[in-house]
Fold these 2 entries.
Entry 1:
Amino acid sequence: MRAVVVALVAFLTLPTLVVIAVSFNPTAILSFPPAGFSLRWYANVLAYPQFQRAAINSVYVTAGAVALAMPIGTLAALALEREDLRGRSVWAALLLSPLVVPGVAAGLGFLILAAALGLLRSPAVLIAAHVTLVLPFVVRSVWVSVRNLDPALERAAASLGATPWRVFWRVTLPLLRPGLFAGLLFAVIVSVNEFVVSLFIANRVTETLPVAMFTYVVNYTDPSIAALSSLFIGATVLAVWLADRYLDLSRVFLGH
Amino acid sequence: MTRAVVELRGCTRDYGAVRAVDALDLAVRDGEFLALLGPSGCGKTTTLNLIAGFVTPTAGRVLIDGDDVTGRPPHLRGLGVVFQSYALFPHLSVRDNIAFGLRERRVPAAEIERRVGDALELVRLDRAGRQRPGQLSGGMQQRVALARALVYRPRVLLLDEPLAALDRKLREGMRDELRAIQRSVGITTVFVTHDQAEALGLSDRIAVMNHGRIEQLGAPREIYERPATRFVADFIGGSSVLRGRAVTADRVSVAGGALQVTGAALVAGAEVELAIRPERVRLATGPADNALAAAVDGLVYQGAQTELTARLADGQRVLVFVAEPAPFPLAVGQPIHLHLPADAFMPLA
């Protein structure tokens, strides 16, 4: 049992470790093991204008997508659980379906739509695409919290004199916090790492960081890309660690 | 007659094809403690929800202090509600839970502080204010729920099975405390329960409900001693119902014997049903006045008393509580005589 777990962990983390090791390689080739230790590729990455622009694009796109997806997803989760919906399972399947649509198909769809609407140069299309991609994660996470919410709590608040809006603000929303944070975390990670769909609809001006990295790899093969990947990995690990520390992720995901 | 604080007029509530409450009329008097008592599914909780405004009636009207509030949402009704699960806000401290209603009423902070302090004192939780509800025992949570519902001085207090979640020992303590608090505050209270001992011990009046209707409304003693229907006689305290035929206005022939019955004007020759409480039936050593021959059918020893089921000559069964120690040794199959006092019968409508 133990050996299996160790092997599995090694298998899962090995690629990541290789990338991190290569990023410190002083020579200009992607070779493993590295020939020494250098931070030159980190300096190169941070100074490369196209990466700088793409990083800022990524921040805008992710922030915009999450800012839209969180309220939409929360309301959708509340409606799915609370409203007397006709065909609830159909609505649920539709809201969660982007998870199963291949990225290439979704990307192509957005490309055609954007072209038809004359929005090919607009970052709005990118944000819209990211909203649809992260929405299922938000809906699913918040839905779990809605389901765990005792409706008597909201009745109690109403009986104490709270208007429906105040009930939502003072009771419903605070009690959905675990689901909201889990949804937020997923949404950010999915959006920041999103590549396939973004590749279809981004151009040189609007492209996000993963797209810029891909373009770079197509043209150059130095350890810059490993350095950037390492920064990416570090940021993700930091985000998850912070979330785990302040939110108790096991409670969020395992529901207790 | 004091005027009604809460009034339901012809209230009906349907859930799909199920009629939970059926053309119910009820008037709750100022300052009284009224219990809605009945088995599960009798409509008592729906009735409470109609008063609170969580549920709107399919037909009929709800009045509070004479105002028609039928379409008014719960937050504008100004009532206090204690839920079976307590429904304390887990993300707020005990103090903030209690202050909730005052904050919604925009009471000044200094006064909130003072009144929450008073409320904590009323329910003897002065030192638990900073804790979260999850850290408290069931009995303490119950008291927080009560304080939260009382602190803004609501017109009416609604209690939905508030003691059901507590274990027996704690429940009895809380029952006395609840009554003491209700008396000291003097608030009109409607209390939903399926526990007849609770209803008998706490209430000024009891509404016994069955199938969405009120079977009988009256003081506990009246309900217990003069049940209006067979259902009430059976649900409260348990009764045996004897079928017989009236011989004269006060004599009934039952199972081959004749019984004197006081307090009822019977029509000679009519079929009658007489209910009698198990604690009113006595064992007689031999044939006597108002006694019937029977055989012991079952015995359940319960410490302070034994529950004896007796079978009459015609097969009808009578439940008897025999105080322990029993006057003579009892065994299944043994022939006995049951003394049924003339004034112990409760004629049913």
Entry 2:
Amino acid sequence: MSDLRELYQEVILDHTKHPRNFGMLESATHRAQGHNPLCGDQLALFVEVAGDRLRDLRFAGRGCAISTASASLLTEAVKGRTTAEAHALFERFHAAVTAPSDAPVDTAPLGKLAALAGVREFPMRVKCASLAWHTLEAALAGKSEPVSTE
Amino acid sequence: MSALDLEAVRKQFPILARRVHGKPLVFLDSAASSQKPAAVIEATVDYYGRLHANVHRGVHTLSEEATAAYEAARRKVAEFIHAPSEREVVFVRGTTEGINLVSQGFARPRLEPGDEVLVTTLEHHSNIVPWQIVCEQTGARLVVAPIDARGDVIVEEFARLLSPRTRIAAFAHVSNVLGTVLPVAELAALARRAGAAVVIDGAQGVPHMPVDVQALGADFYAFSGHKMYAPTGIGVLWGRAELLEATAPWQGGGSMIRSVTFEKTEFAHAPERFEAGTPDIAGAIGLGAAIDWLGALGLDAVHAHESDLVAYARARLGEIAGVRLIGSPREQVGVISFLVGDVHAHDVGTILDGEGIAVRAGHHCAQPLMDFYDVPATSRASFAVHNGRDDVDRLCAGVRRVLEIFA
């Protein structure tokens, strides 16, 4: 295994201890719940969409360091972007965290999200990193059923 | 009582030679599924290599030998749990299947609207969900006896909640999360006095201590082989003969009949009545080997060894600032649950794995108990005969590393 510090990088520890955009969002036009039954992680994502842009986002809930940091980083990464851009970023992110550990991955377009690329060494934890993103997709698609990783 | 020769015991587990992430494996997840000693592995290999054939069917030599080995395993189980007869020993897939057999075959035809099934807060999902299903089917009500903050069932509350409507009282022998040893004999006596049938989830009991189903006063006792050094896929439901005879078959097929016509089928007696189809013959033989192996070590010695480990782990983990132990039962065996600061159990599990230490992280299939302690998940170390104080020391070093990373 690569060093655990690869997984628990400073960026991730920082976002886990001090999550950004945490709490309810009164102005939310879209919202969804995410649930990882394996670890009991619960996540609620609130999104305010104006036109085709994600004007504001917040999240609430409790989870492991990876899922909390991922949700926090997500809110920063997609705020102000168009829904199409957010979707494209999710695809790039998903490809990076699910790539085989010996395959080269270009993390440059991911910005700070690159800190999560280390989870590909830990297959059991990929779901933790992806939960917030699946929840965002569900919120934007207007799904009322909670998203489950199982 | 002879003490365990730990080094000799360890040599009997081939898997302990493995290194995980470059470090010697410390396996502290036996409550999920224990590792297998060579004697058990060899017994299953020997069966497949030397005497495999289907049981209870052929007149040829291999079938007779396989049947003899399969039935010998049943006798070993009966002796192991002090059942009065091996005819009361039903082979099933595991504890879960055993409890489902009782809930569907015994309870369902008897439960009427308004009847009650009493369980406790600390049950594993496998001793909650089958009862919820049968309550839904029959209009009966699930009643939950509370525990206190230590993780002990409150006996007075249990007694108070028993009523003339209580048909079933189902509870664990040992909690899979807290390690609480329930006062089974006391609870069973109360329940039987109230007219309820007593169903014990023995999954975490049999690996750690001598079990006498008659002394416990149980009506049914279910356990899994794979948590007591036997293969996966085999388990036991023991039931008192008259109750098994009054239990409806729940799967039809070969082996479980006396005669079949298209008009009517007569069912075999227990245990065959509940063993439709070809059973897990290799699993049963492996279970027999595990019982022999445990018997040679001595269940009293095993219990003493593992009690020492739990006490040592409580002391050593408890002295680490930031660690919170979950529960402090009056009598505890086999497992210990804890929290590390406010670090999520899955992060704890991942970091410990990096140190070669296997623990369970999560809700342990006991979500109502997690709710009781208001935690989403815990880390759980569970012990087997091959664990020693050195394993606990490695665990504590790993926990310190978690705290360091999340400092």
